[in-house]
Structure formats: C-alpha cells, structure tokens
From TrEMBL:
This is Uncharacterized protein. It comes from the Bacteria.
Length: 34
C-alpha cells in the first residue's frame, strides 16, 4: 500500500524546508568534526 499523496507532499515539503534551513546554517552547523 502506498502513502496518501497529501502525506507524501507534506514530507517532501518538510524535506525542502529542512534542506533550506540546513543550507542557511551551513555544513559546519550540520557536520561537526569530532
């Protein structure tokens, strides 16, 4: 069974928002070297 298209669109939307947010912070804020 496949997820409802609305849910799929919402997930893609969240991924886009998250991606833009992470890009704004920059790789340093995401990948912190140990």
């Amino acid at each position: 069974m496949t997820p409802c298209p609305a849910i799929l669109a919402l997930i893609l939307d969240l991924r886009n928002i998250l991606g833009g947010f992470l890009l704004t912070i920059g790789p340093r804020g995401v990948f912190t070297p140990s």
